Amino acid sequence: MTRHLTQRRLNRATLARQLLTGRTELSAEAVIEQMAGVRAQDPEPPYIGLWNRIDGFRKDDLATLLDVRAVVRATLYRGTQHLVTAEDYLWLRPTLEPVLRARREGAFGRLTAGVDPGELARAARSELSGRTTTRPELGRALAGRWPGRDPGALAGSAQLLLPVLHPPPAGLWGRRGPVPFALAEDWLGRRPAAEADPARLVLRHLAAFGPATVGDVQAWSGTARLREVVDALRPALREFKGEDGEELFDLPDAPLPGEDLPVPVRFLALLDDVVLGHADRARLMTAERRRHLVVEPAVLVDGFVRGLWSLTHVADGRAALTVRLFSPLTPRERDEAAEEGAALLRFAAPEADRHDIRFTSAE
Q1: Please, how many CA atoms are within 13 Å of residue 278, restricted to the half-sphere of its CB?
Q2: Does residue 102 fall inside a structural domain?
Q3: Which UniProt keywords apply (predicted)?
Q4: pTM of full prediction above 0.90
Q5: Residue 48 to residue 40: CA distance in whole angstroms
Q6: Residue 271 resides in a domain
Q7: Residues 313, 238: one domain?
Q8: 51-102 residue pLDDT tens
């Protein structure tokens, strides 16, 4: 008989696997592996995401992993920037190749019409081989081969056609500027795997975000047509039904805590994959609140999205945390949010002379 899972039970399962039910003593590298990667479109959010999950996390913990090449920054899931372990990158890049090819066509196909992708990839590889360069520099070099073409589109295409990494200073807290490009084989001393491994992709999603539907895995990864892959794995998976009758899959030994598991207040990083890891995000938020999360990071209270937060530095040396709530908090919840917010300010703005927290309505 197939078991049924409530949204609250799914909420607790995903938050436990995403290490948001209590800070862990695992290393930053181990946490990035458990999370199946960390969204890294901007430099600071990965640090916030790891601070949320690791007891005593310091910014240097991640910076060191980037420096020693244990963790890399690259375009991966959904064609967006992520931090993953070097070991994961080697199998993820070929597995996500169709996603990246489709992203290139959608983003740069019109601007590079008439340019053969294979020839562009070979030219870019020649330019990158044995050295690190920036995206503008690569674009200018490629524009010399294709005069009149947009240099940014040529470099952007190369980024998606080739296994390219973005080594430090990209990914370091507070660092902005031209993004460095390096071939993965040069930076890591190893080539990515020759074959895709979609089954491994499915299993990693379930370990990090499950229980989940086929659509959830596809939405998180950007990969289509995974039904056959899941069907082949079905004998080794647990099966459940959700509140709306949807078919959910899970690993046989993955944690599935009860609905009463306490979850602390968490100020999530911008675009944290915990809020993007499912096609149906009802396990974390209402449909109306979902639209806000592409521009502002979320506040979890009792495991569900209850507000948004922003941090600003004021000219007189103050750092201010503004919490915009979708619904009022109880006195206990407000005290917990204030305590966690103060900790966030100490982590993210230690140089400020004064820290302020303000609660307002998001409605």
Answers
A1: 25
A2: yes
A3: DNA-binding
A4: yes
A5: 11
A6: no
A7: no
A8: 999 999 999 999 999 999 999 999 999 999 999 999 999 999 999 999 999 9
Residue with tokens 């201010």: 320
Dihedral (CA of 155, 157, 159, 161) sign: negative
Q: Does 137 lie in the same domain as 239?
A: no
Per-residue pLDDT, 176: 85
Write out the E strands in 231-333: 238-241, 247-250, 266-267, 298-301, 304-313, 318-325
Furthest C-alpha separation in the chain: 65
State whether residue 119 is helix, strand or coil: helix
Long-range contacts of 336-341 (CB under 8 A, 24+ apart): 336/264, 336/265, 336/301, 337/265, 337/299, 337/301, 340/264, 340/265, 340/266, 340/267, 341/267, 341/309
**Do residues 60 and 126 share a domain?**
yes
Residue-wise DSSP of 123-171? HHHHHHTTS-EEHHHHHHHHHHHSTTS-HHHHHHHHHHHTTEE--TTTT
Extract the tokens encoding 38.
């960390």
**Residue 342 is encoded by which pair of tokens?**
């103060």
pLDDT band at 2 (very low <50, low <70, confident <90, very high): low
* Peptide bond preceding 211 in cis form (omega within 30 of 0): yes
CA 278 centroid distance within chain: 12
- Same-domain status, 160 and 231: no
Antiparallel, parallel or unpaired: β 298-301 and 133-134: unpaired
Model confidence at 316, pLDDT cuts 50, 70, 90, reads confident
Residues 6+ apart with CB under 8 A from 178: 134, 135, 136, 137
- If you search the block for the tokens 């995401």, which residue do you land on? 49
Residue 212: φ, ψ to 5°: -150, 160
Displacement of CA 68 from its chain's centroid (Å): 21
254: which 2 tokens?
């993955």
Rounded to 5°, angle at Cα 96 from 125 and 248: 170
Helix or strand (DSSP H, E) at 346: helix 331-348
Per the structure, the complete domain to which residue 345 belongs is given by: 285-361
pLDDT at 289: 76
